Fold these 4 entries.
Entry 1:
Amino acid sequence: MNENENILEILHYPNAILLKKSEPVEKFDDELKKLIKSLFATMHASNGVGLAAPQVGILKKLAVIEYEDKKIVLINPKVIEKKGIQDDEEGCLSFPGIYAHVNRPQWVKIETLDEQGNKQIIEAEGYTARAVLHEMDHLEGKLFIDYLSNLKKNAIRKKVSKHTGGHF
Ligand code: NI
């Protein structure tokens, strides 16, 4: 860890910030680069494979992913193509200890911006595609439990309320 990165506090469900839509990134400055470093550092400290800015209380369309040594930074990302379907278990750093099966496309092509604000095309498949789409949902205030049946969703809400002592 160096002086340009900080471990940030990760917000847990049901924090209302997690349900808000993020604003596009407009400034491609040193502050953005520092925030990206801090997101990676915070994700690493929690052994996660992805972390979105709203999860640390910053409502900007920015997320980081690192899976099998591949680092991805998403800035104002858009899905331009998707193919196939996969069913796998996923979790979220905002829901410690909770996992659920979610269907996602098997492959995606994303248009995103790099740290300098230049357009980039990224292709991802399998678990990386899952992570990319999970983080992109966070930027819209959408959570992985939103894909589940009401029954499963309520079971998770009950479990979470036990963890937090019932203070919603
Ligand atoms: Ni998440």
Note: The beta strands are 50-52, 62-67, 70-75, 78-83, 86-91, 99-104, 107-113, 119-125.
Entry 2:
Amino acid sequence: MRVDVVTIFPEVFPGPLAVGVLGRARERGILDLRVWDLRDFTADRHRSVDDIPYGGGAGMVMKPEPFVLAVEAIRAADPGAPPAVLLTSPQGRLLTQAQARALAVRPHLVVLCGRYEGVDERVAELLGAEEISIGDYVLPGGEVAAMVLIEAVGRLLPGAVGDAESVARDSFSGDLLDYPQYTRPAEFRGRAVPEVLLSGHHDAIRRWRAREALRRTLLRRPEMIDEARLDDEAREILRQLRQGSA
Ligand code: ADE
């Protein structure tokens, strides 16, 4: 996959995308990350990327021309299938695991990093850009949001994660919170690892994990339960948890 990022702070990239799973994906050529300085697509002496809002109000709005010129340059340099253009914004659709999976099959993404109080509406209109939010809070800029998006998508690319099971588990991830995990030592500061995990009884372990994942989700993210794809066993565990009998 190719990913082009357009930002006024190109120096903050690759940042965390240089290490771990994403760093290795880039070394192996699974992910081709390119970073563009938005100011290189300005025409004035001051290399301005923002201006005052029409209609008044506080703050500055990012100008449309540099973003549009940047995306045109990126498209011209890669005349293949048109890329999916994304714009980081607190007004965007919330990034989910399902959306990360949908983006991971695209060969080419362009991520535009918003800043200041907003981006001229015509950027999204003219480029057919989809606005993406990483959560219901406001960041000063979209660079960290772009990194979050690229990490979420990049780890799903075939070959990015070595452990096949951890990728396989992804097919259901996002439906429920994960179950609690433990590693050695079996006891630490008086706290023992749940007995069942040491039992070697695979079916009992699987059931314990299903119950704990459901318990956590019910407690911390009850709204996720309504959307989750649950099998008969999970539905029965859920019924018991709701009755307080599990
Ligand atoms: N820019 C500012 N806040 C953001 C958010 N929550 N998600 C994506 N981009 C943003």
Note: The chain has a mean pLDDT of 95.
Entry 3:
Amino acid sequence: MKDRAMNESAVFALFGNPVAQSLSPLMHGAAFAQMGFKATYSAYQVNDAADVVHMIREREIRGASITIPFKETVMGFLDDVDKSASAIGAVNTIVNRDGRLKGYNTDGPGLIHDLAEWIAIRGKSFVILGAGGAARAAVLALIQAGGTPVVINRTVEKARALAESFGCRWGPPAEIGRLEADCLINTTPVGMFPETDRTPMETKFLVHFPCVMDMIYNPVKTRLLRDAEAAGCVIRSGVGMFVHQGAEQIRLWTEMEPPREFMRRTVLERLEKNGGD
Ligand code: NAP
């Protein structure tokens, strides 16, 4: 694969709806160029999950990123789904191996890669805000890495269902004031551009969490992170996780190690130019 990949132009793509705002084409394009890897990476806005698989086969797309709203629905069209992606119930990566399409989820490995640069995970406690696909990926990955997550979500049935799938604690939003943990991770979209004045939790409780991470990366410093910094917490944006989940995709597609620092600088430059911080 490596030798073949170095000599031909390979086709990669992002599928979702919408896709115009995505930084994946910029990040992956820059990574491939830096690696000297002849490849194209295009974004396609499609209307249903069947179109994703049809286009991958028709255009001989070697690997794809999958984003909202197809991460769950595309699974039913694949030949195979990796065990972790199956447990999460969402796929963000497809690898095309000679016409056989397999789905993976790199959000969990991306999160762990990023957290490992920042804090210890084993033996540490985490409060996860949200119970969607990103939260499911986070909970599974944290448990596998020796952490103890507690899930807090607006829709309590979803918090309960997530917690029951992975054997962890859960609670309603009202419980947040009674919790303490080594790290709080926001997996909700609350505070994302353009609604940058919103925050997913009451500021007065942030002191219960010495470390606060937001999976949102636009803006780089969300209202949650600004409030947490003011409360004396150590903060981390979603940029690092975004870079590492993308880097893990490139590893799955090419079996090569991508230039993670270069990818991070590329993404940060664009976000800072757009006034994302
Ligand atoms: P999702 O499946 O739609 O889940 C969203 C979760 O947020 C749900 O649990 C939802 O609660 C909750 N939520 C939404 N709006 C809310 C509100 N106004 N108040 C309280 N809770 C609210 O989305 P996802 O795929 O998990 O993605 C979530 C976020 O993570 C997005 O911002 C995405 O960009 C980010 N993300 C970042 C990375 C990265 O690499 N940095 C990777 C993946 C995702 P209910 O259950 O009550 O609806």
Note: The first strand starts at residue 10 and ends at 16.
Entry 4:
Amino acid sequence: MTKKSKSKSKFQAPRGMRDILPEEQLYWEKVKQVISSSAKAFEFEKIDTPILEDKDLFVKGTGLYTDIVEKEMYSLTTRGRDKLVLRPEFTPSVVRAYLENGLFSLPNPVKLYSIGPIFRYERPQKGRYRQAYQANFEVIGEQDPIIDAQLIQLFFFICKKLGLKKLITQMNSIGCPECRPSYRKKLMNYYRSRKKDICSNCQKRLKQNPLRLLDCKNIKCVDIAEKAPQIIDCLCDNCNNHFKSVLEYLDELEIPYILNPRLVRGLDYYTKTVFEIWPEEENGRQISLCGGGRYDKLIKLLGRKDIPAVGFAIGLDRIINLIKEREIKITSKSTPPIFLVQLGDLGKRKSLKLFEELQQAGLKIASSFSKNTIKAQLKIADRMNVRFALILGQKEAIDESIIIRDMISGSQEVVHLSKIVKEIKKRIKK
Ligand code: HAM
């Protein structure tokens, strides 16, 4: 499909939401395919949860004073007076499903992944949508720091398959209920004496969610946050050792990282490790491709005894934007390896039958019978990233032959029509 100019129609997609057109599906298919196969390789099992959930699940799980719960949820009341929201993230939903379905009786750890939309009423901008798509991974029932590192390894595994390099891992630990209160006190003391110099949002955060003071983007606050006491200096031995081990595993995996003392994440459930991975060129803009961390207290909070867990989510929209920006060529399993080009009346007629014969022979083939010139058809074949074009023109139709064009090298070869299936299969296998 060719690119269309946008026209002002009577109805438009809701602000911050968009259509994913056929020409974009190749990227989505490929990214989802790579994520699913990588999830399997790392022994994750798939779980789908409802898009609508009980509002209180997020009020309790994500946290009352988080941006998500305070300002970003799409909520509704059903005819039966149930208060529901469009899920703003997966983690509380997956934990609910884990508890509700008794998955805690399975051998530990339980490793679950999901792919789907999330909804946040944020200010739309590049890479930030009100309906965004995540691939979400959770490992429940294991506190070993190797799992934290393995999740980051999984992200790099996926990126490598997609041809994405030049990524920066941001690491921090935000402690646990044992060490965080004394750090919070320290932080609040530091900020109290600077209260008049911070933005009004931060003045609120000082009362409700002091850790979030550290990641305020307001220029007034950035400098103050940079000089604030760092949690890393206040971690208890347990958190400190855990974090050190995570970093050692990353060293072992040769995954480069930066310690970012201001990375606190916008969700309340985290303990110990938190991380985000940014593209290099966006450094400073904090447009994370993925984010996650450990949440050892959430499962108890939502209704069961202490069960440690760790997870992360990948922003699919941002991954796809980056693949496009960096002009990475994508081929998908569903990309047909061959494209049938037809020219002239006789060529067109013969191609119609040949198209079916090739399909019957088990070959995936694309064509554009409504286009008549070789240039237009090869252009489509190139955009589809096919490996070979088969060209059947007037001359070939008379000679009972066909041209095989290698779309990478541009070289062409004429073969007899009766041998085309065998010849093309041989080339595809290579
Ligand atoms: P999060 O950092 O809010 O974490 O989202 C994870 C990723 O989703 C982000 O890094 C970003 O790529 C993408 N994302 C989030 N919001 C948007 C948006 N409005 N537009 C485009 N992309 C977006 C979580 O959601 C946690 N539940 C992750 C997690 C799983 N932690 C533990 N387990």
Note: The first strand starts at residue 45 and ends at 46.
